[in-house]
Design brief:
With 91 residues, this protein is mainly β. The chain has a domain of 61 residues: Roll (Surface presentation of antigens (SPOA)), CATH 2.30.330.10. The protein contains 2 helices and 4 strands. The longest helix is centred in the first third of the chain and has 4 residues.
Length: 91
Amino acid sequence: MISKKDFDGLLDIELKIDVDINTIKLPIEKIMKFEKGTVIDFQIPAGSSAKVSVNETQIGEGEIMVYEKNLAVRINDILDSNKLLEVDFFN
């Protein structure tokens, strides 16, 4: 059985976490009008699902929520715990 001690040397490594909430398409004309302060509405309500990836490997899915006035993601599902072993720590 693998224990936490087996990973002691790795526990301080920082990994990149990406949350894919939505993709939208906009015409070039609209994009060319972007300026500082432009708000892009992704048209998703709190409670929508989002893909969660660690170092570009999807490991689960979560739920968009508001936590202490901030946008956050609650992990609802780990797709496959073996995916964690596939994460490229040095990406």
